Amino acid sequence: MDRYITVPLTEEDVTSLRAGDYVYLTGTIYTARDAAHKRMYETMEAQESLPVDVKDNVIYYMGPSPAREGRPVGSAGPTTASRMDKYAPVLLDMGLKGMIGKGKRNQAVKDAIRRNKAVYFAAIGGAGALLSRSITDSCVIAYDDLGPEAIHRLEVKDFPVIVVVDAQGNDLYDTAPGLYCREKK
C-alpha cells in the first residue's frame, strides 16, 4: 500500500503503518551516522541536551556527499542501520518515531520500536543519486567538525521508503522470504 505522510510523525500515522508498506515522506528529517550517534550518546550520558529534539522526528542514517551545482546535496544513500543499534533504543525511549537506513536491526531495537510505537524504514541502497532528488534543502545543524557525518536537517518531498519494522514489531526481513520462496520438489 502506498502512503504519503508528513513528518514529524504522529502516533496515528506510525501505528497505521505495516511492514511492507511503501511510504513517501514530506517534511523535515535529520541525518546522523556513527560518529554523530556516538557524540549524541556521550551528550546524553553527560546529562546535557541533544542538539536536536528527537521527539516525533525521523533520523536518516546517511552522510550526504557534496552537492552538485544547483542541488542541496549530492548522493544521499542510506548506510547500514545495525551500526546504530547500540544507540537506537535510548533515542526511541526519548521519543524518536522513525529511523531510515538499510539492513536488519537487532532484537533490542525491534523491542524499543514496539515499546515506543515507532517505525524503521528502509531506503534503497545504491540509489543515492535518485534519493537525493527528493531532498529540497539541507543544512548542517550540529557537529560541523564531523564533516559528512555532521547532523543535517533535510527538507524532503515524497522521499521514498519501505516500512521494515512496524510499531507492532512485524519485521519485513523475517516475513518477506516466506512470501517469495517456493518449496523445492
Give a written overview of the molecule:
The protein has a five-stranded mixed β-barrel with strand order 2-3-4-5-7. It is α/β, with parallel strands linked by helices and 185 residues long. Strand 1, helix 1 and strand 2 (22-31) form a beta-alpha-beta unit. The longest helix has 12 residues, at 34-45. It has helices spanning 11-16, 34-45, 88-93, 107-116, 128-132, 172-180; strands at residues 2-7, 22-31, 58-60, 98-101, 119-122, 135-142, 151-165. The protein starts with a strand and ends in a 5-residue tail after the last helix.
Summarize the structure.
The chain is of the alpha/beta class and 185 residues long. It has helices at residues 11-16, 34-45, 88-93, 107-116, 128-132, 172-180, and strands at residues 2-7, 22-31, 58-60, 98-101, 119-122, 135-142, 151-165.
The whole-number mean of residue pLDDT values reads: 93
Main structural class: alpha/beta
Pattern of helices and strands: EHEHEHEHEHEEH
Number of strands: 7
Distance between the termini: 33 Å
How would you classify the quaternary structure? single chain
Overall helicity: 25-40%
Strand order of the largest sheet: 2-3-4-5-7
The major beta sheet can be summarized as:
5 strands, mixed, barrel
Poorly predicted runs of 5 or more residues: none
Radius of gyration: 16 Å
Outline type? globular
How many helices in DSSP terms?
Answer: 6
Q: How much β-strand is present in the residues?
A: 25-35%
Keywords:
single chain, 185 residues, alpha/beta, 5-stranded mixed β-barrel, 7 strands, 27% strand
